[in-house]
Specification:
Elements: E1 2-5, E2 9-13, H1 19-26, H2 29-34, H3 43-61, E3 65-70, E4 76-83, E5 91-97, H4 106-121, E6 126-132, H5 136-144, E7 148-153, E8 162-168, E9 172-173, E10 178-180, E11 183-187, H6 193-200, H7 203-206, H8 216-226, E12 229-230, E13 237-244, E14 250-258, E15 263-270, H9 279-293, E16 299-305, H10 309-318, E17 321-332, E18 335-345
Parallel strand pairs: 5-6, 9-12, 15-16
Antiparallel strand pairs: 1-2, 2-3, 3-4, 4-5, 6-8, 7-8, 10-11, 11-13, 13-14, 14-15, 16-18, 17-18
């Protein structure tokens, strides 16, 4: 039975029926190089290992490492979960995947689900993760999940020195603070919500947006919907605040949807009094650079109403390319409307 389900994956307890998969996974050269040799060389040893490690942890701790399988066909592709070490109290994130399923975003997708489970079901306050000094793929995955490098340490469970990463189990982890001249881009705070609701309720701002009216309760619901999710989690939308660096006053916001491991969708809104001052261009341009350079995204898309000249002109100034013109494709606020879709590739910014 699935313990966790994501868009593409299911996570469930490992059982003796999975012994052949565990045997194959643990003896892949890439697994041994990146994680270590578990000395599981036969099906019998795999069954014994499952009982003494996976099953034991489920019974003693109430959690452990879980089998990750493709949701549509059930094919096992790796393991991911939380580890409890005898010598420390932290929740340690662990994962390992068959090399045939690398570079598809599965590790990040599974780990994000495990972290959410740890926060909401296990009341975890902090997570750690450990990698070998040279495991760049794992390091990259941890950074995408919001983990911060803490130190190099010799841990009892590992023969050599390891890199230790930490993640505070805050309601939402946005691993960035972009500073652009007089602006900052940061996570939303509750103190922003009154201003946020006020400018979203302005008719000229709402004209090309999905809402007719916007209240503080609407803003609070949006803020609450982001809680419990890890920034970068596939399938999730996040809102980021554009603020004045000196006063910390909210000027506008950026929206981002993590479509998959490589693609994101962005949007933007500015309070009327802050439009026409270059704020949107500065904020969007810096955020695009962050997505390509720090989060290693491949493609960014944006969709705008064809009548929203200010929006699509801003996208073009930042370098976005118009890729599609959808004619009367959406029934919007009582009438049919047309949209432009824009996109930008990482290679376009080189």
């Amino acid at each position: 039975m699935a313990l966790m389900t994501t868009e593409r994956l299911i996570l469930r307890e490992v059982t003796s029926a999975d012994a052949e998969f565990i045997l194959a996974l643990y003896n892949e050269p890439s697994y041994i190089e990146g994680i270590g040799d578990k000395q599981v060389y036969t099906v019998e040893k795999a069954i014994e290992y499952i009982a003494n490690t996976f099953t034991k942890s489920y019974h003693q701790n109430g959690y452990g490492m879980y089998l990750v399988a493709l949701r549509d066909v059930g094919t096992p592709i790796g393991i991911c979960g939380l580890i409890r070490r005898d010598y420390r109290d932290d929740f340690e994130l662990g994962y390992g995947f068959s090399k045939a399923f690398w570079s598809k975003g599965y590790a990040s997708e599974a780990a994000a689900s495990v972290l959410k489970y740890g926060k909401l079901q296990l009341n975890a306050k902090e997570f750690i993760a450990v990698t070998s000094m040279s495991n760049q793929a794992s390091i990259k995955t941890l950074e995408r999940l919001g983990f911060i490098f803490d130190k190099v340490e010799k841990l009892a469970a590992y023969e050599e020195e390891s890199r230790l990463f930490k993640l505070s189990a805050e309601p939402i982890k946005v691993p960035l603070l972009l500073e652009i001249d007089e602006l900052n881009i940061r996570a939303f705070e509750k103190s922003d919500l009154h201003t946020f609701a006020t400018y979203r309720a302005v008719p000229d701002v709402a004209q090309y947006q999905s809402w007719h009216h916007y209240s503080y309760d609407d803003a609070k619901k949006l803020y609450d919907s982001m809680q419990g999710h890890v920034f970068g989690e596939v399938g999730q939308w996040f809102q980021l605040a554009i603020v004045d660096k000196q006063s910390n006053q909210l000027l506008g916001d950026l929206a981002i949807h993590f479509i998959d491991e490589d693609q994101v969708e962005v949007g933007f809104t500015l309070a009327p009094e802050n439009q026409g001052k270059g704020i949107g261009r500065k904020a969007l341009s810096a955020f695009v650079d962050y997505l390509f350079d720090q989060m290693d995204k491949y493609r960014i898309i944006a969709t705008t109403d064809c009548d929203n000249h200010a929006s699509y002109k801003l996208l073009e100034r930042v370098g976005f390319r118009r890729e599609a013109h959808f004619v009367n494709n959406t029934f919007f606020k009582g009438e049919w409307g047309s949209e432009y879709q824009y996109a930008l590739l990482k290679s376009d910014r080189v």
